[in-house]
Amino acid sequence: xxxxxxxxxxxxxxxxxxxxxxxxxxxxxxxxxxxxxxxxxxxxxxxxxxxxxxxxxxxxxxxxxxxxxxxxxxxxxxxxxxxxxxxxxxxxxxxxxxxxxxxxxxxxxxxxxxxxxxxxxxxxxxxxxxxxxxxxxxxxxxxxxxxxxxxxxxxxxxxxxxxxxxxxxxxxxxxxxxxxxxxxxxxxxxxxxxxxxxxxxxx
Length: 203
Prior knowledge:
The protein has 203 residues and is mostly beta strands. The protein has no helices and 18 strands. The chain has a five-stranded mixed sheet, with no helix packed on it. The chain has a four-stranded mixed sheet with strand order 10-7-5-12, with no helix packed on it. It has a three-stranded antiparallel sheet with strand order 14-15-18, with no helix packed on it.
């Protein structure tokens, strides 16, 4: 049986007929095991909106395949262009990061580092795991005529301004409700890219 941490050995010849007894000094050495850390969540299947809480999870085993998740200290990070946000996993390998307006939007890498006495660190790194975005801003909504009542008031004109600071494509849909049936239906849809106070009107 070999024990992790500091061990000692010596060697030589003793009690031999044809050799002089010669024993080395006791020599210390350190036996170190390895950790294998695997990121489980986020897994690349979901993106997130600023203001949301993101769950991170990692699993850790040693080089004998024994689960070490509960006994290691595991730091999980989301990072991009030098910006880092981290959390320390609990005994289940889980922790969360609460995002806010100070977080940059765009793609984030995820890393995990696990440490344990007498073990080499376990690491895992994934690139572009998720996109952290914002909700498009809708302002200055307008309907003309403003009353919106009666058959004689038609046609109605709808306007709204859209801003999407993510510089991605925003999809905008106009839904109308049938007051008789209570059902909503899609009347019009469009999109804009790099929208900055972009006005959409219908019809």
